Amino acid sequence: MNSPMPQLSVVVPVFNEQDNVASLVEEIVRALRGVTPFEIVYVDDHSRDNTLAILQQLKAQVPELRVLQHTTQSGQSTAVRTGVKAARAPWIATLDGDGQNDPADIPRLLAKRDASPPEVRMFAGWRVNRQDSGSKRWASRIANAIRTRMLRDDTPDTGCGIKLFEREAFLELPYFNHMHRYLPALMQRAGWQTVSVPVNHRARTTGVSKYNNLNRALVGVADLRGVAWLIRRAKITSVREV
To answer: How do residues 128-138 score in pLDDT, each as one tens digit?
Structure first.
């Protein structure tokens, strides 16, 4: 018997997350089975540990799971875009692969979508109780304040990995490295509305973070200037068939 076409694709980019893969897949399945037809699209960004091997083993146990692999390491934004392009559902939920996002929040985002007007095409997670180090929380507060002042995207936590958005709207956005950090602003630039939704956040229990405050800051300056330029140059036109 063929499984129904998924209505939701959960895209998870991973790099060297061998200890988090199995538990996160199990949580996604537990959160979504019986809620909506779904698929899970893992994108392995050329991991150097056993992440890919574990994912391949899980495919035999989880029929909803699909696995893609980058042949060269390409970064989180590219991995997200790879997963979205391969997705079969009209709506996408993204999760970070480190286990800090809670899959149990996905049904909450779906309920918020169902209660919202069609102009809202992105529902961004907002980590109201972040479980990161003090230095990372401090750096994020500063970065969010600067970003809000420059982009005016009215998004308190653009760096949260859990988001729900329409696939078609995402694929129309300009693509560049690190774009995943600016998705609400880019969606608004395209003429859509976005909503921030409080979500759970958990401490990382295994593995190590792939970012530090310095490298985030260095790439963030150039990215902010680029996104601000894109917003200034945007021209939104409504179209009707006659």
So the answer is: 887 555 555 55
